[in-house]
Amino acid sequence: MMKILGIETSCDECSAAVVEDGRTILSNEVATQIELHKPYNGVVPEIASRLHTEWISEVVNRALDAAGVSLDDISGIAVTNRPGLVGSLLVGLNFAKALAYSRDIPFVGIDHIRAHLYAPHLEFDITYPFLGVLVSGGHTVISKVTGFDEMEVMGTTIDDAIGEAFDKIAKHYQMGFPGGVVVDRLAQKGDPDTYRFPDPSLHKGDHQFDVSYSGLKTAVINQSDQFYSGSGEKSLENIAASFQKAAVEILMKRIRKALETTGLTRVVAGGGVAANSLLRSELKSLDAEVIFPSLKLCTDNGAMIAGIGYQYLKAGKRDSYDLQAFPRVEAFKRSYPV
Fold first, then answer.
1. In which order are the strands placed within the sheet that holds 333-334?
2. Which domain range does residue 224 map to?
3. Each residue's pLDDT tens digit, 60-70
4. Is 263 exposed, middle or buried (0-12, 13-18, 19+ CB in 10 A)?
């Protein structure tokens, strides 16, 4: 049996985990920086990378202790090297390199977008193919997934990601941080029909599966009065509920179209926004099998890195010590019109 140490420092979560044979989570330690970024209503890259530097050694040791193992029991190390804040990525990557070199342990760099779609495999037996829905602060991707490393992208964002829109609206209205959580919480107390925010106007033939959130974000922040229904208070709760309804429906229209086009009957969601209560409810209403990770595996974590890392290492993939960190995601294979 292979025990893989996973390290994740792509943004503001400093996490390490030990996963056995790609499925069994032996430990999953997460040191969150939320309270330290709250005064700024967003993640400050310089603060994030400094805290990762201070915390990474302790977090890794905690993960090993919680799993009841030592480095002698570790068969491989998996570490996020893309995408994310480059300063944060470098902390985890260089720590993993040093650890792998000092103990002669094979290591592999991980694209944490693919890792998010692997996260549900840690809790459920999932058969390929499926429609993968990756929704996070930096990415929105709808894809046909035929293997742990085989994604055919059908649609993605042409501007802002869905999570980014949540964060920016929360920041503008000073709702709190993290944006996705506070908007969801406020929305549950509001009336989603107070404002009727617009769906983006995309050329359906060219972008039938793509999403756009820049226009919606602008409408909510700068033009909300134009979309006021005339009833209900102009409260933060009602703004949050109306925005959330519009944001989720933009995505759901593309998901329904993707299912119809591919004939797939299974949807697997991952990423931080997969924790959103309305999105979960809308996905569950689909005429398809829908699988989510638990809330603790929606956000960035070391377990998903270790899990997919096992698959790469088992397949014989190894990375050299000159592996670099990349702030942007690598190009995905697209097999549908764009």
1. 289-291, 266-270, 130-135, 140-147, 150-156, 333-334
2. 126-292
3. 999 999 999 99
4. exposed
